[in-house]
């Protein structure tokens, strides 16, 4: 019997790819995204993947900041399917810029979406999972949730927060048969980074190093895993009864996390700065 999987932020990219893979494998998808057109087209695709099975998927346009809307969505999903097996928190936005020059109101919004958004969807479905005595809560984190990159202080802070929140949460929910996991990609070849890469203004003391960082990041993205490769890893973790807590998508993130754990700080920093061409 397939799972009932809730996915946030599934209109595009990794979330969309994961939803299609899961539906093709016989799982039922319930999810939301702000992109109403993307949700509508995905609904059509999902329904076409298993027309003879009678499965119906439930996708709605919804903002992760709409807390009452999330609770209504939860009630609708549980009324429709009677259970939820896995919740994947995939909503997130990027944030780039020298810390000295960032707009703190924009930073607050990033933290609200990335961290409290994940908390909101997990908290909404936790009571039902606890009552049914099983379930999985999976959060999309990032390499920068453990290895902070320069010019990504706010984004790194949001991913560090997700890692800490989920690490703490797993102790609380384990007695109820609920598994918790993180997926930590380094880079995926999407437009995610390009949308936030803005050079500091002329005269900024950070402009030249930020320019080199962006150029290097753009170059790395060319050989990064595709959204489909990342989606396959997500689907693999969701289908495991006892997924590992830390899950990487690519060799780069695995390597950097290894170095982060075992190398002296000075050597680790030198490797990072050289790797991103901002020594």
Features:
7-stranded parallel β-sheet; alpha/beta; 279 residues; 9 helices; Rossmann fold
Give your account of this protein's structure.
It is a single chain. Helix 1 (13-24) runs parallel beside helix 2, helix 3 runs parallel beside helix 4 and helix 4 (104-132) packs parallel to helix 5 (153-173). The relative contact order is 0.13. A seven-stranded parallel β-sheet has the order 3-2-1-4-5-6-7, sandwiched between helices. Helix 2 links the parallel strand 2 (28-33) and strand 3 (58-61). The protein has helices at residues 13-24, 36-49, 67-81, 104-132, 153-173, 207-221, 227-239, 251-262, 265-275, and strands spanning 4-8, 28-33, 58-61, 86-89, 135-140, 178-183, 246-247. The N and C termini lie far apart (53 Å). It contains nine helices and seven strands. By secondary structure, it is α/β, with parallel strands linked by helices. It is globular. The chain has one domain: NAD(P)-binding Rossmann-like Domain (Rossmann fold, 3-Layer(aba) Sandwich), CATH 3.40.50.720.
Write down the Rg. 19 Å
Going by CATH, the architecture would be 3-Layer(aba) Sandwich
What structural category arises from helix and sheet content?
Answer: alpha/beta
Helix content: 40-55%
Shape: globular
Query: What is the residue-averaged pLDDT?
Result: 91
- What count of structural domains? 1
